[in-house]
Amino acid sequence: xxxxxxxxxxxxxxxxxxxxxxxxxxxxxxxxxxxxxxxxxxxxxxxxxxxxxxxxxxxxxxxxxxxxxxxxxxxxxxxxxxxxxxxxxxxxxxxxxxxxxxxxxxxxxxxxxxxxxxxxxxxxxxxxxxxxxxxxxxxxxxxxxxxxxxxxxxxxxxxxxxxxxxxxxxxxxxxxxxxxxxxxxxxxxxxxxxxxxxxxxxxxxxxxxxxxxxxxxxxxxxxxxxxxxxxxxxxxxxxxxxxxxxxxxxxxxxxxxxxxxxxxxxxxxxxxxxxxxxxxxxxxxxxxxxxxxxxxxxxxxxxxxxxxxxxxxxxxxxxxxxxxxxxxxxxxxxxxxxxxxxxxxxxxxxxxxxxxxxxxxxxxxxxxxxxxxxxxxxxxxxxxxxxxxxxxxxxxxxxxxxxxxxxxxxxxxxxxxxxxxxxxxxxxxxxxxxxxxxxxxxxxxxxxxxxxxxxxxxxxxxxxxxxxxxxxxxxxxxxxxxxxxxxxxxxxxxxxxxxxxxxxxxxxxxxxxxxxxxxxxxxxxxxxxxxxxxxxxxxxxxxxxxxxxxxxxxxxxxxxxxxxxxxxxxxxxxxxxxxxxxxxxxxxxxxxxxxxxxxxxxxxxxxxxxxxxxxxxxxxxxxxxxxxxxxxxxxxxxxxxxxxxxxxxxxxxxxxxxxxxxxxxxxxxxxxxxxxxxxxxxxxxxxxxxxxxxxxxxxxxxxxxxxxxxxxxxxxxxxxxxxxxxxxxxxxxxxxxxxxxxxxxxxxxxxxxxxxxxxxxxxxxxxxxxxxxxxxxxxxxxxxxxxxxxxxxxxxxxxxxxxxxxxxxxxxxxxxxxxxxxxxxxxxxxxxxxxxxxxxxxxxxxxxxxxxxxxxxxxxxxxxxxxxxxxxxxxxxxxxxxxxxxxxxxxxxxxxxxxxxxxxxxxx
Length: 908
Prior knowledge:
Elements: H1 2-18, E1 26-32, E2 39-41, E3 47-53, E4 61-69, H2 72-77, E5 83-84, E6 88-89, E7 96-97, E8 108-117, E9 129-133, E10 145-147, E11 159-167, E12 171-181, E13 183-188, E14 191-192, E15 209-215, E16 223-232, H3 234-237, E17 254-263, E18 268-272, E19 278-281, E20 284-288, E21 292-296, E22 315-316, E23 318-320, E24 327-329, E25 335-341, E26 345-348, E27 354-371, E28 377-383, E29 385-386, E30 392-393, E31 403-407, E32 413-416, E33 423-431, E34 442-449, E35 455-459, H4 462-478, E36 479-480, E37 482-483, H5 496-509, H6 513-526, H7 552-564, H8 567-587, H9 620-641, H10 645-666, H11 678-686, H12 692-708, H13 720-729, H14 733-741, H15 750-753, H16 788-796, E38 799-801, E39 810-813, E40 823-830, E41 833-842, E42 845-852, E43 857-863, E44 870-872, E45 875-876, E46 883-889, E47 892-897, E48 900-907
Parallel strand pairs: 2-9, 15-24, 21-31, 39-43
Antiparallel strand pairs: 1-3, 3-7, 4-5, 4-6, 4-8, 8-9, 10-23, 11-16, 11-19, 12-15, 12-17, 13-14, 13-16, 17-18, 19-22, 20-21, 25-34, 26-27, 27-32, 27-33, 27-34, 28-31, 28-33, 29-30, 35-40, 36-37, 38-39, 40-41, 41-42, 42-48, 43-47, 44-45, 44-48, 46-47
Helix pairs in contact: 5-7, 5-16, 6-7, 6-8, 7-8, 7-9, 8-9, 9-10, 9-11, 11-12, 11-13, 13-14, 13-16
């Protein structure tokens, strides 16, 4: 019996010896050009990335193998591959460039990857993903621009267009490429094409017009088929800007449609927009970004996008001679429907209005269900807040109507929602609804660019948690293809100052790599020949250059590079960065920049009865000089990364002159600045404008100013993002926490105490007595002050990419703990995997928990005075061999960690 057991054990051991070793890592997520299963890739050599997971510590990738095929079945069998790297020794798992043969327009490519760990053990092949190529250049467009033959410039009624066609063979793959001068929604055989909204999005249309790529294989039939497309004004010819005017980019709506059909026998066919299409008027009477939509269901034409529809009364289209040279694929994530909300209350206001409260200030629209007679008209207005008396409040919308109206056709339940507009709202006022107003007949849908949520932050203070909620919801609502300032009034523009102030926080909350890459290309396109940057992008205001606004040209590319390690984005924007700095240099005199236009520290705290001489207004030229230096420093940083050594030397010398001029002009020999405001000292300290010998006094002046205001902030859009960073950097983290946790006005938490569900434009959008700030500028969804989020992730939780290595390949974790909070936890989804930092007070001990992604390393600063205070997983820190002890510095014990989960217990 015993010999039999021994024999079995021997055979089992022998089997294990001859079996290939399996890696203890798993490939869990694949990206192509930053996106999952993207369509419309327009680069010949796309970059591939993947995420690894493991339950073991210190796991690294030592090699990878990528394979690609046009057939999913062939890929999984490993045959008929169009690309296979074989085993490549490398730890690179992010932005690995495809180097295979030329990819073809409109083709679908399946791919997967396996890796080897540091012990040369291979993982399983990943689950296959895919990408679909775009058209890859104007030479591949065969379609013609077409306009509806029924268009009337005096009417804003949306035209509809259609075409029937036949397919005689089974289809393997059909890919449609669609764009419009205006907005469009497409249907094939009565079914919606894709789940994207407000296409083709907003760009600097005359220079860059996006097209979308759709896999429409499943929508087609063998035999007869039909395409139907509805056009709308959108940003193209709708009213935009202050004193809103229409036709900013053109007066006529037009469609460009091209569908590539690949049959199972390998032959191909193109279905294109051309002279064979027909057009008519649709039920959308008007649809405007600011004003909303008017829809008459009595004008619907049943079956108009299906084959066999009788279209004898339809008009021929007109061919148009618009260019295709400016067409670009959709680079960022498209707008999709996201969360949905039901009303939490149905109110009757003191004025007798019927109002529905959705409980969340959001951006999107309301879907309405109703049953009534033909000709019944429902009218829905949208608002962010109720006034002090509880009445529906729209004065802060200025000229924007934000009103949707629907005329019923009768005959049963009807469902309505807008098509080519969006609203910013929490409340809706409903007029003339047929029947009883019931919550189940109204559903609000959030719309925003479909960015992957990458960050979360929570702590023991519920008000701070609500602040984080509000920050993320303001980002959702305002990252609607462009980073808008507000989503409700007659503005909704891509203000550059807001976008730069919030960029770092935005990159923690969501993956905005592609979002900013797309928008920054429009910035470069709209940048003037002299290098000046418009105040809004896309540029429809023709206003040029304010300090802290135009600096987005340098700040945002550098933030994206630091967060994602995306060197291509930095390369693409480098000339734009340099043009901006050279513009300032050419505008400056004696190395001082005193611009003609400056918004200054926009919307800083202004106490109406402050006669103490402590006014918070900061000298605008001082601000300009600080941002001049900051942009120059960021340009130097980028030049170093891109190995432009001559330019590093040149701009380094310029930076010295800029700072010398700042000291001469704005700082006394004793270190006092011409503006004694929080923002003045914050910018000077954040951007290293002061010699080290002057910094301690400057910090004390900043701290004293905060105390003078009762431990409150007074900063505006430009000072606020850096305030807590400066305090923490110079040893005043307790005061930074005090500012974060302050609940009285002005503070981050004051709006939370007033019921805010998004970030306000003003510190006191609603005053303590319940009255509202001036309606001319009082948005309740304005993300700029949400820039505190970066400090919450990066300082309170301590999550940063290592100073010399971007993209979180090497990580630094250095939390600033406080007794004001019982715990802080932040998660951040890097391209390498999920990074977690959590600290918590428990029974007199500090618990510090970390998760480090596979294939990365982390320099961790454990809050402790001595190594002997620290245990990890119950064992003394010194006894651990799977981490490296570096030393002690400034109240921290420094260690190097590989991937894995860790729990430190620190006795106090």
